[in-house]
Write a structure and sequence with these properties.
Blueprint (H helix, E strand, L loop, with lengths): L9 H21 L10 H6 L3 H29 L4 H23 L3 H20 L4
Helix pairs in contact: 1-3, 1-4, 3-4, 3-5, 4-5
Length: 132
Amino acid sequence: MPTPLYALTLAHWCILIAAVLPIVCAGIAKAGFKRFDNNNPRDWLAAQDGFRRRANAAQGNSWEAFSIFAAAVLTAIQTGAPQDRVDALAVVFILARVAFIVCYVADRASIRTLVWTVGLVASLALFVSSRW
């Protein structure tokens, strides 16, 4: 029998949010531009500059960060980490990723690096959260 939606934890919902964030970045890169080429979107995005190029780069980085985060959440749950800790770390990751995207699009490289690090540390902490 499938797990009902109300049985999903906050951390599970954070996996879904993390999966949607790259799509949001793509939307930012493409939004409002009338000459967007949907026949060849990757080449069109690669030729952009400014915030559109940075939003596209944030999309790629968001996909990269997603895999380690999703694996970390599922590992933490499977190995019996306290659910409140898993949820808290998952929320920290999501907040860091949102801040990362904002900083990337706004061209705030130093702060972007800091929040990227926070997100990475949250993912790594999830992997070992059943041990502390």
